[in-house]
């Protein structure tokens, strides 16, 4: 079983932030850098995912993505990829960093040297992997399943400089061979029902990560923003359609993306007044029609009604676009 990798919430949040945060904001470059790293990381994980699909292996196996678990000290373990088979479990930390990547086991530092000579520090993937492995070993003591770990580099042109590491670091192309070596190394097998039980145990402990950073709405660009203008210009609502003030691109569905930005960055609920203020809709009736159209669950009486934006907001709203606007 290979689950489809979904974008982590933090990446969705940063994407929304990149669309909305004012370019001259004091923290713009800080968040832009976070976004770049996370986006590259996600792309790297997707690159490696095909290995699981191409894996020829006679037994049941599971690949869990973005597994988020809490340890007894209340610290989070965010595991990008966890491969589980009856022979062993493998923590795979995927890095999509180009240039020359150096892992120093003594300083626990990971540095990247670009072609132009600039050196930057990155969190050490080896230390991260070892931390996850230790945690998982403790968690599954009642199952006799070995816990392995590896750091996989998704970018084929990256040069790996590795002094004396305790864990293997290799390019994605080496993952197949490494898995085969582990199947040989751990011939003992768990029973199928034990394996399923173990996967259920892990999934039952899963924590839905939350974004704890709150940014004042005054730092965001308001309105429905035009995707054709790289979100630099506002779109206006007229007769059920959003139209860009600059390039005149027209769209009905773009409202779903704008609402997602609102949900990610501002609040999980919205009132008629908040909708009008944020999306620059003048008419009270038009705002009411919009909110009703999408049949969002609500609380409160008519005047003070609060609409709750569901977690699967885009899919939810998509259902109501097909029929067009009333
Ligand atoms: Zn435009």
Q: What's a quick, concise take on this entry?
A:
The protein has 326 residues and is of the alpha+beta class. It has helices spanning 9-20, 28-54, 125-139, 175-185, 192-204, 254-265, 272-279, 284-293, 313-318, and strands at residues 62-70, 76-84, 89-95, 100-104, 109-113, 119-122, 147-153, 159-162, 169-171, 224-225, 234-238, 241-244, 250-251, 269-270, 298-299, 306-308.
Describe what you observe in this structure:
- With 326 residues, the protein is an alpha+beta fold.
- It folds into 2 domains: 9-204, Trna Endonuclease, Chain: A, domain 1, CATH 3.40.1350.10; 221-318, Arc Repressor Mutant, subunit A, CATH 1.10.10.
- It is 35% helix and 22% strand.
- It contains 9 helices and 16 strands.
- It has helices spanning 9-20, 28-54, 125-139, 175-185, 192-204, 254-265, 272-279, 284-293, 313-318; strands at residues 62-70, 76-84, 89-95, 100-104, 109-113, 119-122, 147-153, 159-162, 169-171, 224-225, 234-238, 241-244, 250-251, 269-270, 298-299, 306-308.
- Strands 1-2-3-7-9 form a 5-stranded mixed sheet, sandwiched between helices.
- A hairpin with a 5-residue loop joins strand 5 (109-113) and strand 6.
- Helix 1 runs antiparallel to helix 2 (28-54) and helix 7 (272-279) packs across helix 8.
- The longest helix is centred in the N-terminal third of the chain and has 27 residues, at 28-54.
- The chain is globular.
- The relative contact order is 0.11.
- The model has no long low-confidence stretch (mean pLDDT 90).
- The protein binds zinc ion.
């Amino acid at each position: 079983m290979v689950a489809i990798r979904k974008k982590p919430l933090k990446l969705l949040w940063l994407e929304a932030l990149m669309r909305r945060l004012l370019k001259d904001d004091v923290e713009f470059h800080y968040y832009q850098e976070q976004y770049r790293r996370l986006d590259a990381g996600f792309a790297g994980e997707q690159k490696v995912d095909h290995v699981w699909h191409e894996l020829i292996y006679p037994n049941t196996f599971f690949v869990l993505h973005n597994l988020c678990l809490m340890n007894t000290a209340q610290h989070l373990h965010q595991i990008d990829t966890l491969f589980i088979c009856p022979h062993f479990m493998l923590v795979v930390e995927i890095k999509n960093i180009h240039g020359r990547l150096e892992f120093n086991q003594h300083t626990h530092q990971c540095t990247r040297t670009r072609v132009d000579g600039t050196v930057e520090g990155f969190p050490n993937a080896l230390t991260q992997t070892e931390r996850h492995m230790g945690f998982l070993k403790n968690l599954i003591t009642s199952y006799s399943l070995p816990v392995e770990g590896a750091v996989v580099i998704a970018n084929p042109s990256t040069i790996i400089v590795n002094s004396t590491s305790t864990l293997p670091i290799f390019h994605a192309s080496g993952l197949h061979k490494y898995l085969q070596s582990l199947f040989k190394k751990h011939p003992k097998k768990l029973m199928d029902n034990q394996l399923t039980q173990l996967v259920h145990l892990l999934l039952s402990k899963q924590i839905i990560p939350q974004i704890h950073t709150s940014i004042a709405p005054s730092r965001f660009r308001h309105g429905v923003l035009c995707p054709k203008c790289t979100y630099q210009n506002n779109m206006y609502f007229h007769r059920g359609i959003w139209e860009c003030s600059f390039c005149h691109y027209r769209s009905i569905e773009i409202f779903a993306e704008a609402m997602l930005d609102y949900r990610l960055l501002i609040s999980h609920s919205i009132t008629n007044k908040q909708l009008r203020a944020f999306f620059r809709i003048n008419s009270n009736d038009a705002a009411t029609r919009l909110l009703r159209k999408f049949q969002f669950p609500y609380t409160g009486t008519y005047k003070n009604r609060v609409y709750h934006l569901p977690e699967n907001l885009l899919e939810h709203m998509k259902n109501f676009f097909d029929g067009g606007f009333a």
